[in-house]
Each structure stands twice: as structure tokens, then as C-alpha cells.
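To fix ideas, we close by showing one paired sequence and structure record:
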Amino acid sequence: MLGQSESSLLLDNRSLSKLSQGITSEITGEGGSIARKTKNSRSAESVPRAIPFHGGLDDARRLFQRLEKQGTPLNIGTYVGSAQVREAVIGDDDRAPTPAELTEMESLVEQAMKDGALGVSSALIYPPNIYAKTDELIALAKVASKYGGLYATHMRSEGASEMQALDEAIRIGREANLPVEVFHLKVSGKARWGNMKRSWQKFKTRAIRLDIAASMYPYPAGGTALASALPPWLPMVRAKAPRSPQRSSRARAH
């Protein structure tokens, strides 16, 4: 349900690392997706890992056309990332969208769904997706629901607040009337070992009245970007602060 080949396939379409493991199908786009790309698209999470190599991919249709032209050994699909949509419209600002901006964001999701996206995704521990409130995500998920899509999420917490984060994902699915996929379900931190059964019990109960599923790592460790461990305001401030030549020199020296 989740892979990260959106950029690497554009650089080397052999996909040997996946095929050698027997992986032949993949859905990409965890919160950020490689399209849509605009002048505001600059964060690492919303423009995955190969910014210099995917110019011109301003919508999902062009991404699929490029993959078809160059060839790919994988059956590949993508979500439209809510981080990508948010950044395309309002940049990295820590604020709610205006009504006009939200309408524009909804139209971007709608276009992506028409182009073939499988749903809308979120990654809510990374900026700028961390700034998205639940109502914003519900609005975007409702658009995906109209086209038979699903809501897929790297939840807002995988640690102390995991149950509240799971409740948020369930609420989004209910109110937008679409299935939910939880990316790499886990309980982070040794102090919380043994709590997975609480999360899994919520998936199993019929009382939530929702088509919900989860994927998981087939290994015991995890890894992510430093931005997920920093205060939410810090990446935004750093992105806007003027750079000092002296500071840059020191940073390079260290």
C-alpha cells in the first residue's frame, strides 16, 4: 500500500531493489506526492527527494505519461498528497487556508483524482502537513470520496498520542465517507511496548462502522527525517530567515 519509488523510478526505471525482493506493485505518495509541483513546492516531504529531475510534472497526468513513455517494470499508482496540495496553494505557512484557498486545494485534489490518483494522503508529523487541521483534511477527503478514492495517512502520532491520532483518522473516514488506510502502523518508543493490541483492537471492532486497514513494517526499526523530531514552528522559521554568509561558512566547516 505504500512505497517510495516516485523519484527513483524517474532516475532509474529498472527498479532492481524492488524486483529483486519480488515486489511488482506499489502505491506512492505518503503525504507528499511527486505531482503536483508548483513554485511554492519546496519542502522535502512534499517534493520527494529528486527535485532537479522531475521538472514539468505539474499534475498527475504528466507523471503517468512520463512513466508510460520511459517504461516501468512496476505496477505503479499514486495518492495525491495533501501536503503537496497545501504547499501548492499556501506554501509552508502555519495557518488554516482561507475559504478561497480551500476551494483551490479541493480543485487540485479533484483534478488529481480525475488524472488517476487512488486517493488523498497525509503525513501529519512533517511540515507543512503538520499544520493541517482535521476539518481541512475532511474537506479534501470528501473530494477523493466522490471519485471512489480512499484516505491514507501517516497519522499525527505514533507514540504517546497514538490513540487520539487513530481517532482522528477514523473521524476523517466517517465524515468524508471513504475507506481509511493507516501507513506503517506501529507504537513508537520502548516505554509503550505492548500497546499495539490497543490500536489493533480498535481496527477490529465493528462499532467504528468504517472500512479501515493498516500496513506495517516487516522489520523492527524505523527511520525518518529530522524535521519530524523538531518543534513544528522551527522548519517554517528557518525557511524564511535570511541566510548569513558567516553562518553558512561555519556550518560547512562543521
